[in-house]
Amino acid sequence: MNEIDGKGRTIRELLGKKFSVDFYQREYKWQTKQVRELLDDLAESFLAHYKQNDERNAVQKYGHYFLGSVILSNDDKKKKTFVIDGQQRLTTLTLLLIYLLRRQGDKPDRVKLDDLIYSEKYGTKSFNLDVPERKACMEALFTGQHFDPNGQPESVQNIIARYQDIDAVFPKEIGESALPYFADWLIENVNLVEISATSDEDAYTIFETMNDRGLSLSPLDMLKGYLLANITDDEKRAAANQLWKVRVQELVELGKEEDADAVKAWLRSQYAQSIRERKKGAHPGDFDRLGTEFHRWVKEQEKKIGLHKSDDFARFIQHDMNFYGQQFHRVRHASLKLTPGLEAVYYNAQNDFTLQYPLLLAPLLPDDPEDVVTHKLRIVAEFLDILIARRAVNYLSLNYSAMSYNVFLIMKDIRAKNVDELVTVLTDRLLNLGCDFNGTSDGSRKGVQDFRLNQWSKRYIHQMLARMTAFVEVQSGLPNHFVEYVAEGKNRYEIEHIWANHPEHHAEEIPDASDFDNWRNSIGGLLLLPKSFNASYGDLPYAEKLEHYNGQNLLARSLHQNCYDHDPGFLKFVQQSGLPFKPLPQFKKDDLEARQQLYHKVAEAIWNPKRLQVAVQ
Predict the structure, then answer these.
(1) 436 Rama sector, left if φ>0, alpha if ψ -120 to 50, beta otherwise
(2) Cα distance between residue 611 and residue 473, in whole Å
């Protein structure tokens, strides 16, 4: 092996260079979770030092943050520097720099970041992380242009999605005044170790050696080592080690990092007693640390969580980790596939509510009978389903930053509760939630009445229409097609406007074009239909579309008289439910308003708090 060079680098020093990623490297695979964790960690480290009245040059005295190592191959034959290990972080950092550059705009105090993103030579601009297949999408992000990722390679699709994640979850505590301070700190005080070799062969040897010799151990590996080292009985240690391997393998088969996510959810659900306050300078609490450094937290808190002697450490793995690992696997499986009895877990996952897992585990006890465990999981999942729907129709944020504190408080309230106590606590939570389908308690939001299609609400309206359609069909004796209604692919279902986009057709009732848009986008004026339907019939007048609706799902068919003449299952459902379904031979403003009220009633029937009591029957 030739000479190896390892040096500490700031982001400015590292990203000021030119890199390539060879064709045989894996795709850019980071998901929302990794981006969120990175941003939370960076924000936490920065805010621990930032003071609002600081001069800019005070940033150089702020603390540093270590982001790991990057292995590079400086191969003279290829005349390029290739990233052997670290492209996930370097790509994400480049996206973060583009976000900061665009957010700063032309402000006089902006931090110059351009040369860390791209360089220019002989009039040709190229990105410092230079990967040909990514050039077009990176250019679009850099210039703020729209880019359609459909049909693009996996890396390109993930790059677009992760940039959108950065925009969505960038910590609100870092406001406009703090932004240049954060940008300075990021490029000057965040460090990586650059390990350089003069050939790909040497670089890969370093990479393999670091992993083989444990220098890149994950927090989960370190937790396992610590726990096993404290079991003095050889047989018990061997049994605990074998059980750990079995449980971890089962989780890994669900997906990458599911094993670590299971441990985070378990420890948070049972032990977190504090969370970082959402203000500058606040310190991380148990909930935060268990999301990033759970191995250190367990070691520091061993006595508080009952780890005193060898048998306690054995029990921690064989009893606790085994039970909560199994239950995490169960609910994660239910989040990926509609599972009888745990349907709400799937619905919550469809809304990307990742915080549901510690909440689902919170009331469980390792000695609970199987039926009790199932009842508790159902109650919590149903509660979350109702909470998500109520917040969504009132345009209240459901992202991690907005919900983590509330989830933490609820989690503490329901920890170790029995079934009856759980129903009581969560029913009270819904009563005091401050919002329902009628609006918010302060009157600022109007619930379903004002719920309409826009860029923010689109995902929730799609889910809600899918739930309503499936509900009406199931209650009428038909199969549950919810999974089909939310599936991606060539035959996907899309939101259909009942009114075509022709304001002139409705000018007599709605002379103002902007008012027409509001009415047209109201949820009562929407259906969920196959993409091919919208392409073929979407622009037709209602009278012509109505006949075609009669051949679609039951919620669409309910607009047509035939549905009331030839569908006894549907008629029985309408009679028993009392829901105000009726055929609509025309669809004017009053008809749309009636349909809006119908959807309101259907929503209240689906997301009824009485479901919490039904869940235990």
Answers:
(1) beta
(2) 19
Model pLDDT for residues 472-519, shown as the tens digit of each residue: 999 999 999 999 999 988 789 999 999 999 999 999 999 998 899 999
What is the DSSP secondary structure assignment for residue 370, as one 8-state letter? H
What's the mean per-residue pLDDT of the chain?
90
Domain map (residue ranges) of the chain: 5-212, 217-336, 343-444, 451-614
Contacts 24+ apart (CB under 8 A), 549-554: 552/527, 553/469, 553/473, 553/481, 553/485, 553/528, 553/529, 554/469, 554/472, 554/473, 554/476, 554/478
What is the pTM assigned to this prediction?
Answer: 0.70
Per-residue tokens: 3: 């000479």
- Using DSSP's 3-state secondary structure scheme, residue 368 falls into coil
SS3 state at 417? coil
Q: Decide: helix, strand or coil at residue 71.
A: strand
Q: Which two tokens stand for residue 29?
A: 């695979």
Helices (H), 293-350: 294-300, 310-315, 322-336, 343-350
Mean pLDDT computed over 552-577: 95
Q: Is 545 exposed, middle or buried (0-12, 13-18, 19+ CB in 10 A)?
A: buried
Nearest to 220 by CA among 297, 288, 283, 272: 297
- pLDDT confidence band for 125 (50 / 70 / 90): confident
Which residues is 127 bridged to in the sheet?
Answer: 118
Token code pair at residue 244: 């750990």
DSSP letter for 526, please: E
Helix (H) or strand (E) holding 603: helix 589-606
Contacts of 494 (CB under 8 A, 6+ apart): 528, 529, 530, 531, 534
User: Phi first, then psi: what are they for 537, rounded to 5°?
Assistant: -125, -5
Q: Is 68 left (phi over 0), alpha (psi -120 to 50) or beta?
A: left
- Of residues 173, 147, 175, the one with CA closest to residue 161: 147
E-assigned strands of 421-517? 435-436, 439-440, 493-497
Question: How far lies 152's CA from each of 133, 163, 559, in Å?
Answer: 9, 16, 39
Helix 87-104 to helix 32-47 angle (10° resolution) is 60
Give the pLDDT of residue 228.
Answer: 86
pLDDT exceeds cutoff 60 at 214: no
Q: pLDDT digit string (tens) for 192-203? A: 988 877 765 565
Three-state secondary structure call for residue 174? coil
Q: Residue 175: which region, alpha, beta or left (left: phi > 0; alpha: psi -120 to 50)? A: beta
Q: How far is it, in rounded angstroms, from Cα 266 to Cα 289?
A: 13
Kind and range of the H or E element at 32? helix 32-47
Mark out the alpha helices in 190-321 (DSSP H runs): 200-212, 219-229, 234-252, 258-271, 286-292, 294-300, 310-315
Query: Can you count the helices (H) and strands (E) in the chain?
Result: 30, 12
The predicted pLDDT at position 215 comes to 41
pLDDT of 24 over the 70 cut: no
φ, ψ (nearest 5 deg) of residue 20? -130, 160
